[in-house]
């Protein structure tokens, strides 16, 4: 839909006659938002499939190998983003803006062909009891049984999720409920990533507006706005190999590497500093005189401050992303039982999407409360720096809260495999072991007596 909307209908020729094919604005909006919705559904579907696939491929790896995998995985993702921002952004802004929409369409079409050719090697059968419906069913059944408990039943349980167990009147086995209880312990981790993701979304929103209203000229070359996004990706591309070397050196010296929870805390601190620096840069940007700058055929009044002076906030946010994302994936994978590791990564991805919605909600709330004063059509007259300072304050509080609960995720030596066995199963195993022991004692006593008689 996006190439159709961007097609230059006003320059379309048929035979020898010049025919102008113009889409009405309403039709353009319908096609445009249909294309965006389809793209969003496609991206969500791809992520929903990749999460369990990663969980199936990584069974049996130790902590260092898992962290190495996630580091290099996100390194490749950001390498692709670098090519996109440098290549497609330059073509769309400087060469042919309509061609910029056609390139992603062609690349996705080629990807579909490649996936179809490799479909036999990408098919996995999930383990029994590890479906998302089972996990959500445990939560719903526990809530239902809690309501019944307060009305009709009596008796106490350790956790409200225990109400879903069959021996407490619920519908699910003890193993399923214990797995979900482990997953529930990660919800604070997921919830505290929402505000961090709201900060990350400033790259295509708040930081983008700042860059667009700054001087993009480098000598005689007009830089694409997406070039600043590459600055935020560079820390990821540089830090992933560096972290791999440091971790390998630590292991070779038989030292314990830094805990992933501490790495996440450090990343949150970097995100806080990034938004704070953005607010200070906005104050400085408004002190420069205004100049005219042409972007996509439109003449804008922008600040004469070079856009490269905004680089520190991009670098800090890229550094935060390099630290937080692989560590969060490692904790989500390592601390959950093998049956629900794919679901754990699903919830982590869901928190990333929720952070985008939270960022949009904060922007709309601030816009409504300020009466449009924070984001006017002329940014030089606005107060964007106040929004950045507000976000930095919220992120600082979020960082302190995560630091206070990070002790729960320090020890990753307790893997999720042992938690797939319920306490009843453990008792049954001990009972069988005692039976074997007494049976062996009884047999040895019988054999000794029989030998003495002979």
TrEMBL record:
GO molecular function, one term: symporter activity
Membrane topology: Multi-pass membrane protein
Membrane-crossing residue ranges in chain numbering: 30-51, 72-93, 99-118, 221-242, 263-281, 345-367, 387-410
InterPro entries associated with the record: MFS_trans_sf, POT_fam
An annotated GO BP: peptide transport
Any one GO cellular component localisation term in the record: membrane
Pfam families, per database record: PTR2
Keywords for this protein: Membrane, Peptide transport, Protein transport, Symport, Transmembrane, Transmembrane helix, Transport
Lineage: superkingdom: Eukaryota
Annotated localization: Membrane
Family the UniProt entry places it in: Belongs to the major facilitator superfamily. Proton-dependent oligopeptide transporter (POT/PTR) (TC 2.A.17) family.
Record-given protein name: Solute carrier family 15 member 5
Organism: Seriola lalandi dorsalis
């Amino acid at each position: 839909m996006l190439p159709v909307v961007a097609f230059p209908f006003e320059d379309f020729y048929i035979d020898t006659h010049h025919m102008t094919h113009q889409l009405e604005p309403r039709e353009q909006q319908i096609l445009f938002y249909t294309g965006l919705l389809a793209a969003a559904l496609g991206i969500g579907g791809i992520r929903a499939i990749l999460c369990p696939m990663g969980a199936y491929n990584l069974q049996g790896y130790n902590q260092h190998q898992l962290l190495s995998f996630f580091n290099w995985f996100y390194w490749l993702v950001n390498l692709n983003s670098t090519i996109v921002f440098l290549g497609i952004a330059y073509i769309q802004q400087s060469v042919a803006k309509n061609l910029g929409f056609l390139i992603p369409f062609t690349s996705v079409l080629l990807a579909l062909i490649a996936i179809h050719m490799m479909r036999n090697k990408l098919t996995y059968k999930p383990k029994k009891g590890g479906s998302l419906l089972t996990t959500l069913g445990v939560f719903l059944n526990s809530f239902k049984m809690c309501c019944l408990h307060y009305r009709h039943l009596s008796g106490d349980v350790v956790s409200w999720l225990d109400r879903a167990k069959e021996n407490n009147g619920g519908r699910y086995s003890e193993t399923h409920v214990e797995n979900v209880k482990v997953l529930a312990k990660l919800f604070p981790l997921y919830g505290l990533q929402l505000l961090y993701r709201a900060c990350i979304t400033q790259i295509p929103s708040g930081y983008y507006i700042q860059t667009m209203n700054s001087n993009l000229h480098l000598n005689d070359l007009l830089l694409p706005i997406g070039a600043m996004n590459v600055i935020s990706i560079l820390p990821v591309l540089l830090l992933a190999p560096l972290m791999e070397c440091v971790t390998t050196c630590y292991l070779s010296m038989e030292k314990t590497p830094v805990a992933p929870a501490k790495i996440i805390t450090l990343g949150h601190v970097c995100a806080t500093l990034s938004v704070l620096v953005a607010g200070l840069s906005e104050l400085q940007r408004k002190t420069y005189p205004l100049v005219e700058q042409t972007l996509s055929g439109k003449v804008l009044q922008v600040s004469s401050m070079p856009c490269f002076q905004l680089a520190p906030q991009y670098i800090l946010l890229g550094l935060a992303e390099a630290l937080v994302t692989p560590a969060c994936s490692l904790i989500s994978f390592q601390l959950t039982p093998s049956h629900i590791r794919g679901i754990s990564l699903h919830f982590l991805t869901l928190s990333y999407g929720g952070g985008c919605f939270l960022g949009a909600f904060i922007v709309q709330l601030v816009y409504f409360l300020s009466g449009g004063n924070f984001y006017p059509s002329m940014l030089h007259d606005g107060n964007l720096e106040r929004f950045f300072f507000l976000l930095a304050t919220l992120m600082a509080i979020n960082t302190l809260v995560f630091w206070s609960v990070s002790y729960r995720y320090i020890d990753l030596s307790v893997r999720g495999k042992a938690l797939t066995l319920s306490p009843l199963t453990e008792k049954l195993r001990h009972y069988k072991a005692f039976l074997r022991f007494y049976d062996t004692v009884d047999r040895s006593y019988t054999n000794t007596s029989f030998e003495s008689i002979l």
